[in-house]
Design goal:
The chain has about 130 residues and is α+β, with helices and mostly antiparallel strands. It folds into two domains: about 60 residues, TTHA1013/TTHA0281-like (2-Layer Sandwich), CATH 3.30.2390; about 55 residues. Helix content is about 55%, strand content about 15%. Strands 3-2-1-4 form a four-stranded mixed beta sheet, with helices on one face. Helix 2 runs antiparallel to helix 3, helix 2 packs across helix 4 and helix 3 crosses helix 4. The longest helix has about 35 residues. The chain is elongated, with a radius of gyration of 26 Å.
Length: about 130
Amino acid sequence: MKRYRVAYERDESGWWVASVSGVRGCHTQGRTVDEARRRIKEALELFVDDARTAPIVDDVKLPISATKAIRAYAALRRRADEEDRRAARAARRAVRVLRSGKLKMSARDAARLLGLSHQRVHQLTQTEAEER
C-alpha cells in the first residue's frame, strides 16, 4: 500500500498549508494542523483511489528552535520513563525485603517507610508474587 507524505507549513497569514508530496496539485489549508490534516485527506480523495485507506506520513515544518525543543523534550521523556521503570523495580525489591524474611512488616508499616500507600504496597506484593 502506498504511503503519502504530507508537508505542513505555516503561511504569512498564520494558516497551515498542507501539500501531498508526489501528487501534483493536491494541497489545502487549515487554521490548525489537525484541520489541515482532515482537509488534505479529503483533497487526496480527489486525486487517488486509495486515499481513505492509505497511511499518511505527517511532516510538520517547524522553526529550528521548535524542533530542538521537541527533541530535547523527547530525550528527557525517554530518560524519565527509564528512571520510572528503575524506580518501580526498586520499589518491588524494597517491598519484598520489608515484607518477607525476618522483618515481615505489615503493608502499612512498609508503606510509611517507602512513602507509598498501603494499597500500592499490596499491589507490589502481589506483582512480586506473580513474577515468581
